[in-house]
Write a structure and sequence with these properties.
Strand order of the largest sheet: 3-2-4-1-5-6
CATH topology: Rossmann fold
CATH architecture: 3-Layer(aba) Sandwich
Radius of gyration: 15 Å
Distance between the termini: 30 Å
Order of helices and strands: EHEHEHEHEEH
Number of domains: 1
Low-confidence stretches: none
CATH superfamily: Phosphoglycerate mutase-like
CATH class: Alpha Beta
Length: 161
């Protein structure tokens, strides 16, 4: 199974009296996401399903991914909230084991932890806002056996180093 891990785009700053869950993407964040997702589409990213955190900035990111990647199935799940442990998310992914490719849309630090868990590696990943990490994971009943395939960042998508 191909698993694409997409961190939400740049969102509004936290503000007193404003719920963190309701922070929207900013214009630049949307533009960066579209650039990353267009490059991802050109490189063969075709998720059958997008699983997303229920927080506003992730939902908006998932909607952009749905449009850019022409994916018709988007599902919200609380296992993509920032404080959920990777094994819980792995259980959710396993429910969709028949799919060839999925996308996860969420937040840091959870997404980096999930990537390390799927790769069975004690590593740190600096997953920037709007970045996409592509893995292939062995589809089995046991622990995940992942292989890192690609990392696309907004700077790369704009042709900057």
């Amino acid at each position: 199974m191909n698993i694409n891990i997409l961190r939400h785009g740049t969102a509004e700053d936290r503000a007193p009296g404003k719920s963190d869950a309701e922070r929207h993407l900013v214009k630049e964040g949307k533009r960066e996401l579209r650039a990353v997702l267009r490059l991802a589409r050109k490189s063969g990213v075709e998720p059958a399903m997008i699983l997303t955190s229920p927080l506003r900035r992730a939902l908006e990111t998932a909607e952009i991914a749905k449009e850019e990647l022409q994916c018709h199935q988007v599902e919200q799940t609380k296992v993509l909230l920032p404080d959920v442990a990777p094994p819980q998310l792995w259980k959710e992914i396993r429910k969709h084991h028949g799919l060839k490719e999925i996308m996860l849309v969420g937040h840091e630090p959870q997404l980096s932890r999930v990537a390390a868990f799927l790769l069975e590696a004690p590593l740190m990943i600096d997953l920037k806002k709007g970045a996409l990490l592509r893995l292939t994971v062995q589809d089995s009943d046991g622990p995940p056996r992942g292989v890192l395939k690609a990392l696309l960042t907004p700077k790369m998508a704009r042709g900057k180093s």
